[in-house]
Structure prediction request, 323 residues.
Amino acid sequence: MTSSDTPRGPVDSSRVPRYAGPATFARLPRLDEVASADVAVVGVPFDSGVSYRPGARFGGNAVREASRLLRPYNPAQDAAPFALAQVADAGDIAVNPFDIQEAVDTVENAADELLGTGARLLTLGGDHTVALPLLRAAARRHGPLALLHFDAHLDTWDTYFGAAYTHGTPFRRAFEEGLLDTSALGHVGTRGPLYGKADLDEDARMGFGIVTAADVYRQGVDEVVDRLRQRIGERPLYVSVDIDVLDPAHAPGTGTPEAGGLTSRELLEILRGLAGHHVVSADVVEVAPAYDHAEITAVAASHVAYDLVTLMTRDVAARTASD
Ligand code: MN
Ligand code: MN
Prediction:
C-alpha cells in the first residue's frame, strides 16, 4: 500500500451490529477485497502435532469470532491500527491433517506467497508446529530473526515418538536450520515440570534467555520489558504467542495447561512494551475452544492478536513516514 491510500477498515458497527456481518478477524475486509495488505491475518487450522489434548485446529475461527468486539482505536498504544495500515483477513491455509510433513510444507509455501505480496503475517493457529514453517518464510525475507516466544513450555525439545515436527519442537528445528539470531532469543512465561534439568541446559546452549512466569510476577512488567528490549534492539523480530503462557484461569481453552501462568493483563502489557521494535510477523497459537468456557481464552487471544497487529501497523506507518 502507498501512503496516499486510505486503508479499508472494519465494518461500521454503528450500521451493522458486532454480532452480525463478516466472520473475518475484527470484521476487517478479506484480502481479496483490497488491493494489497500491510498485515494479513491468516488461519492455520492444524493440530496434528500436539502431544496432549487436540482441538487447536478450531482456534483460528474461535479467535475470529471473539474478535468481533475489538474496536478501531487502541488506547493502550494510542493508535488506530486499522487506519495506520491496511489489515485484511487472508482466510485459512488448508493443510493436510494426516501428513505433518506435507502440512509444514504447505504452510511454508503459503506464508512465502503472502510475505511476497509485501504483507506481514499475524497467524492464528493451530498448534505450535506451525511456527517452524512461518519462521522459515520470515527468515527467508529478513535473515536470522530475533524471537520472543511466549509460552509455558520451551518448545525446544528434540523429538516426540521419533517425530521431528511437533508442537513441542519447532524452535529446536528453527535453531538447527539457522533461522534464528541466537543473540536475541527469549522465552517468556516459562513454568511447569520438565523432563529433566538437561532440558534447560540444551535450551540455553541454543541461546535462549528465559523470563519465567515467576520472574514476571517478582520483577514486574516494566523490568521484564526493559530486559527484552535490550536483547532485541533493531533486529527483525518474530513474536510467537502460545496462549498457554496465560494461567489456566485466563486461558483454560488450550491443550497443555500449566498452573502459575501470566495474567492476560501482564501479557498484554509486555506486548505493548515492544512498541518501536521491528515486528515482522507474529502468531497466536494453541487456542483449543472445546476446553474453553464463555470464550475466556478466545477473547484473551483476540486481544493479544489486536495488540500484535497494532505493533505491526505502527511499525509499518513509522517506516512509511521515514521513507
Ligand atoms: Mn505451550
Ligand atoms: Mn508452544
